[in-house]
Amino acid sequence: MQLKQTPEYVKLIPGCPGGPRNGRYAPLDPDYAAIKEGTEAVMAGLWKADDWETFRNNWKATPPLPEGTPQPGSDVTESYVNIPTRDGAEIELKIMQSAKHPKSAATAANTVVVMRLHGGGWAIGGHNTEAVENLHAAAHPNVVLVSVDYRLAPEHAFPIPFHDCVDALKWVKANAASQLHANPEKIVLLGGSAGSGLSLAVALKAREENISGIVAMALDWPTGSHPKFFKQLRDKYGYELESYIQVPEGTVAGVLIMEFFLDAYTPNAQPDPYHSPLLAETFAGLPQAFLQIAGFDPLRDEGLAVAEKLQRDGVPTEVHIYPGLPHFFSALLPDLAQTKKYQARQNAFIDKVVKAANAQ
């Protein structure tokens, strides 16, 4: 796939140290530094494609599951359903749940829906993008995981993927009790990268339309804003937003790669909090949030700005930063000690939310 020669939305400054608050998170983690060259060679191979179908297929391979991951079939059951969208199309939902704790009408009240919105720059990816995380969440005895296969850019640019995710939320609300044997008032949004930005946007839309039931958001390396709007966000709120310049050639997501995906999803982007949630006037009233952020990542400062805005607006927020590690390292480097910590923290947060929701 062809990238731009130079960035369009940010001006690069060679050797930029980053902002005074967040720049310290970029220096490479020693464990990652030792394997960085080989990892980047693998990533470069995935970009060798002349068309979108080939490009997407390059990213579909599911790596071997790390030791300790719940197994499909023996630990987690999987099924699929197609649901209608507002424009007459259909999208697929993948439903995952514990094979050892079958759900029924009798267990519905205490069963939480974890709604997965996958990463992939709004243009690639699907149900298996965060396969390991999904299996861990779905194996929880009180969880049904619903993965949303929203339509992809550039064929389906903004707002279609966002609308698909909102339509999926409404389907979950309407069918949680009858089809999922779950509680429609106990929903967790789980998103990675582009999926985190979509999760934030869905939460904003639910607040606007008074759609109840979202009790928490788990957001990994979230997208917060199109870089066209960084300056006004800096001027208004004081966010640093320097990581695009400090980490222009990140392993998975570099500046030119991000602009490639942004141009596919939001060509000629205009200010809109449903693709750039940091533009929302306030995050007040959103559900509690859990963020995991990589330090050697162009998206780092967007994630930290999201956390800052959530905290400033009174939303209970838990933040974990992984210095010196690249975007999406949890899937890229499954055997890294920090990946195991990342997964354990996500599991603990989901368990905490489930217990709190069922204690009321």
UniProtKB/TrEMBL annotation:
Keywords: Hydrolase. InterPro entries: AB_hydrolase_3, AB_hydrolase_fold, GDXG_lipolytic_enzyme. Residues 114-329 form the Alpha/beta hydrolase fold-3 domain. It holds the Pfam family Abhydrolase_3. This is Alpha/beta hydrolase fold-3 domain-containing protein. It comes from Sporothrix bragantina.
